[in-house]
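Could you please consider the sequence and fold appended to this message?
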Amino acid sequence: MRMKNGYLAFIAIVAVLLLLAGCGTENDNQTAAAGGKETASVEAGANAAGKDEGGQAEGQAAPAGDPVKVNIAINGGFNPLVIAQEKGWLDEGFKKLNAEVSWSKFTSGPPLLESLVSGRVDLSFLGDGAAITGVSNQLPFEIIGLINEGKDLNTVIVPVDSPIATVADLKGKTIGLAKGTTSHVYLIKILQANGLTQQDVKLINLQFEDGQAAFEAGKLDAWVSIDPYTTLNVTKKKAKILDAKTVIYAPVSMIAHKEFAQKHPELVVEYLKLYKQSLDWQTANPDEAAAIYSEQTKIPEDIIKLVLERSAPLLSAYTPEVLESQQASADILLENKFLKKAAVFKDAVDDTFVTEALK
């Protein structure tokens, strides 16, 4: 009887232990499953909230194996970046660093800056007007190099038979230019040097291609132009250059979106290296370069060759002289109410990338 009672007690204890073990396992499994679902839900929510239209996490480095998207913008149609795009050098170079290029083109700096603010431009270049405006407005980019001092970048052209002979003669005249660009800055500076202001002339806002059409149609007394349009009109004897009687710097700056530069400094350096490669190739192969630019701009190759002979593109850090010129321009633009806030240009310059690229 004692054995029977002991046996029954033993069986009862084993049953209780098995029951407890089963409950523990079931609870653990339910907890793990619930935790897994919660983690998956949080990750899915984060991914959904942090992805842009292309599906890449916005504001985060691409995961291993997922190429980094690099948004490169060409500002105008006459720059070594056009060569790099045509030859595929940037695409090839970035592919080696697990990155892929997305190209875009803009007619001038102001619309490019709008896209930069919205996160659609990572690397590009700007004339002095757009660059200074962007610095003044504290837009999210930094100056990473100098690609042209711009001594002969801008000119005022007038019809070849125009009686306008001096800058002073522009008073009361209709002048075409792309507002907010380097050409706009140039006009303000030469007017001021001759005792005039913007209020003394009538400005018509025209992008460069539209300016060419308006000038040919005789709708402008003068046009603040850049190459290749200046050389095109002068060579065809449709225009003459108005002598400004002073040297005006109009530096062109290479730029990078701040967030992109912080997260991918190696790609910024590679970008500058490949730009330099394209620049060197252009210098060594002017005929082929002219053919590429002619295809892009629809301007005859012989005109493009003349422009290349006169141009002085480069890639370097900002020099003290050019920095001083940019600051002087910023001060003049503030004085003329072109800017709403003062700009300290040197504060936006970071030469570390170009210094590394040129080693």
Notes: The chain is about 50% helix and 15% strand. Residues 1-63 have pLDDT under 50 and may be disordered.
